[in-house]
Automatic annotation (TrEMBL), chain A:
<keyword id="KW-0813">Transport</keyword>
<keyword id="KW-0046">Antibiotic resistance</keyword>
<dbReference type="GO" id="GO:0043190">
    <property type="term" value="C:ATP-binding cassette (ABC) transporter complex"/>
</dbReference>
<feature type="transmembrane region" description="Helical">
    <location>
        <begin position="169"/>
        <end position="191"/>
    </location>
</feature>
<protein>
    <recommendedName>
        <fullName>Transport permease protein</fullName>
    </recommendedName>
</protein>
<feature type="transmembrane region" description="Helical">
    <location>
        <begin position="24"/>
        <end position="46"/>
    </location>
</feature>
<keyword id="KW-0812">Transmembrane</keyword>
<keyword id="KW-0472">Membrane</keyword>
<dbReference type="GO" id="GO:0140359">
    <property type="term" value="F:ABC-type transporter activity"/>
</dbReference>
UniProtKB/TrEMBL annotation, chain B:
<dbReference type="GO" id="GO:0005524">
    <property type="term" value="F:ATP binding"/>
</dbReference>
<dbReference type="Pfam" id="PF00005">
    <property type="entry name" value="ABC_tran"/>
</dbReference>
<dbReference type="InterPro" id="IPR025302">
    <property type="entry name" value="DrrA1/2-like_C"/>
</dbReference>
<dbReference type="InterPro" id="IPR050763">
    <property type="entry name" value="ABC_transporter_ATP-binding"/>
</dbReference>
<protein>
    <submittedName>
        <fullName>ABC-2 type transport system ATP-binding protein</fullName>
    </submittedName>
</protein>
<dbReference type="GO" id="GO:0005886">
    <property type="term" value="C:plasma membrane"/>
</dbReference>
<keyword id="KW-0813">Transport</keyword>
<dbReference type="GO" id="GO:0016887">
    <property type="term" value="F:ATP hydrolysis activity"/>
</dbReference>
<dbReference type="InterPro" id="IPR027417">
    <property type="entry name" value="P-loop_NTPase"/>
</dbReference>
Length: 253, 333
């Protein structure tokens, strides 16, 4: 356990250091969610949107944007592992006695920390538009996002390991995973307004449960019925992602 | 230090089983410097990858630094250092940071890891490059960083996979000087792969020639070459008839079975060819044989490979061993 924790910290430090040296990279990576927030959010809060007041709409929309960020960033982070694999750096690391699970956990933790920083910025940007953040609710949502980020980036690492050595299939598989998960989760529009078949597909999408839970938590409704299924979905995705990615790394090495 | 018996590896590809390594037996004693020599695709790198726990063997056993690669890979990893074919330092990381991180993977404390990193940076003349990113370094400098990474935890056994591939001659000489100095000073066992004949001949105390996944020769370079029967004189004559006369004269300098003819070419195997060549040419002149070319040579490891396999190592799909390719990436063999 000590070796696992020590190697997780080492892996996290190794990955976060270059990001801290170039913090603008974190901000630039937010371009897409910020555009969605400003352009899409303005439409939803407009007088003809049918969503109700601006505050209610932002309260509904911002958690969706945060989950969208959580999908886009961590789900594509495996490309770094792929690049290290084809470059020979991963091989060098795998010859050391590094704890394989720690190697994955440290890398995914870095994605989650980056995600948290981005979430704070998104909330800060949305506040002048009419969002009144519920601080404990926002913190609980970020905690949920952090754990989901670990799980999703673990899946991205799994895809990267499976796509070795050429890596050609990595981006194809990522897109195939990303868009259904995002569009069937109700991050931008409520799924409840869709047809029955769409709602049926959303019912098997774990991210849809996380979105509902995040919206409840973000509004400070900690005991809302949507919270527990969302927490369970995050726990399952994360446990499965870390387990499978670690196993793949052990086998691949 | 290494005890491999029947070590083999096969891969499933396209529905077929391809055997990359056929039951290799290899013993390496502590302190030895052993070169695995062979063309690309011979199985050298696959063997190295099995010995370094990167690839599980599908046949046989191997004990490295006292531990079984299959059942105790963690123990093997703590004892060995590895310098792969590719550059090992992360592109986005600074050189010193990568060294310190490497030390941490091996369980060194933060302070010890920093001390060791600084020591190696100094030892390998990299101190001025400590805060640079590897992408900004030359090929030779990056290779020195790779070697520093392999030595961070003071391993007893160092594996080097094509350590000088892709480097210019000056950088190659520099890298070898560093490796040999480190070995001399720290007494570590070194096992390396190369397809550069001159390197294996000059540097290795023992050469293991690998071809098509099998060990086909194992010995010191001198012994392997001596087994060929000495030096060689090779002449070409104007006509095949002259070649016949030259062959019969040549038999007086050695034994008839060590004289070969091929059209207008005549080869003699004998001791001290450089001394005998002028006398041989004088006798041919007296006999009226017109010689168009003449040369004496010492046998090379390429001659050993030719004798064993019927083809030259440098014709076996490799980059020219004398003029290395500039591309540092070679397909894993």
């Amino acid at each position: 356990m000590r070796k696992f924790l020590q190697d997780t910290v080492t892996s996290f430090h190794r990955e976060i250091r270059p990001e801290l040296r170039q913090p603008w990279g974190i901000v630039l990576a937010m371009a897409q969610p910020v555009l969605f927030l400003v352009l899409f959010g303005s439409v939803l809060t407009g007088p003809h949107s049918g969503f109700g007041g601006a505050e209610t709409t932002w309260q509904w929309f911002v958690p969706g944007i945060l989950i969208m960020m959580c999908l886009v960033g961590p789900l594509s982070c495996g490309h770094q592992l792929l690049s290290e694999s084809s470059g020979g750096q991963l091989e060098r690391i795998l010859v050391t006695p590094v704890h394989r699970a720690a190697l994955i956990t440290g890398r995914t933790l870095k994605e989650s920390v980056t995600l948290c920083a981005q979430a704070v910025l998104i909330i800060a940007i949305a506040t002048p538009f009419g969002l009144t953040p519920h601080i404990p609710g926002a913190l609980a949502t970020m905690l949920l996002l952090t754990v989901l980020g670990i799980g999703l980036s673990a899946f991205s690492h799994l895809l990267a390991i499976a796509a070795r050595p050429s890596g050609n299939l990595f981006w194809v598989a990522t897109q195939l995973l990303l868009f259904p998960l995002m569009l069937l989760s109700g991050v931008l529009l409520p799924i409840s307004a869709g047809p029955a078949w769409l709602r049926g597909l959303a019912a098997v999408n774990p991210v849809a449960y996380v979105v509902d839970a995040a919206r409840a938590l973000f509004a400070g409704q900690f005991l809302a019925p949507a919270v527990l299924p969302g927490v369970v979905a995050v726990a399952v995705v994360t446990a499965l992602g870390l387990g499978l990615a670690t196993r793949a790394l052990r086998r691949g090495s | 230090m290494i005890e491999a018996r029947g070590l083999g590896r096969s891969f499933r590809t396209g529905g077929q089983t391809v055997v990359a390594v056929h039951g290799i037996d290899l013993t390496v004693a502590e302190g030895e410097l052993v070169a695995l020599l062979g063309p690309n695709g011979a199985g050298k790198s696959t063997t190295l990858r099995m010995l370094t726990t990167l690839l599980p063997p599908t046949a046989g056993t191997a004990r490295v630094a006292g531990a079984d690669v299959r059942t105790a890979p963690e123990w093997v990893r703590t004892a060995i250092g590895y310098v792969g074919q590719h550059h090992a330092a992360g592109e986005n990381h600074r050189v010193r940071d990568e060294l310190v991180t490497q030390g941490r993977w091996y369980g060194l404390g933060p302070r010890r890891s920093r001390q060791r990193a600084d020591h190696l940076l100094d030892l390998l003349d990299l101190t001025a490059l400590a805060t640079r990113r590897p992408a900004t370094l030359s090929g030779g400098q990056r290779r020195r960083v790779d070697i520093a990474l392999g030595l961070m935890h003071q391993p007893r056994l160092l594996f080097l996979d094509e350590p000088s591939a892709g480097l210019d001659p000056r950088s190659r000489a520099d890298i070898w000087a560093q490796i040999l100095r480190l070995r001399r000073e720290h007494g570590i066992t070194v096992v390396l792969t190369t397809h550069y004949l001159d390197e294996a001949d000059r540097v290795a105390e023992r050469v293991v020639i690998v071809d098509a996944g099998r060990v086909i020769a194992d010995g010191t370079p001198a012994r392997l070459k001596a087994a060929l029967g000495g030096d060689q004189i090779r002449i070409t004559t104007e006509t095949p008839a002259d070649a016949g006369v030259a062959a019969s004269i040549g038999a007086r300098f050695t034994t008839p079975e060590r004289v070969g003819t091929d059209g207008t070419a005549v080869t003699l195997r004998l001791v001290r060819a450089d001394r005998e060549l002028p006398r041989f040419l004088r006798e041919l002149d007296h006999a009226g044989v017109t010689v168009t070319t003449a040369a004496s040579s010492r046998p090379s490891l390429d001659d050993v490979f030719l004798t064993l396999t019927g083809r030259r190592l440098r014709e076996s799909g490799d980059a020219d061993p004398v003029h290395p390719a500039t591309d540092p990436v070679h397909p894993a063999s």
